[in-house]
Amino acid sequence: MTHRHPANLASALRAALLGLGVLVGFLPSGASAQVPWPNRPLKLIVPFPPGGPTDLIGRTAARILSDALGQPVIVDNRAGGSGVTGLDALAKAPADGYTVGLTAITVATAPHLGPVPFDTMRDFTFITNLVSTTPLIDAHPSFPANTLAELIALARARPGTINYGTPGIATVPHLASEMLQAAAGIRLSHIPYKGTAQLTNDVLAGVIGLNFESSLVLALPNIRAGKLKPIAVIGARRASMLPDVPTIAESGYPDIHAEPWFGLGAPAGITAAQRVRLNDALVRGMQTREVIDRFAAIGAEVQTTTPEAFEAFVLAEFTRWGEVIRRTGIKAD
Question: Which of 66, 102, 144, 277 is most deeply buried (CB count within 10 A of its CB)?
Answer without folding.
Answer: 102
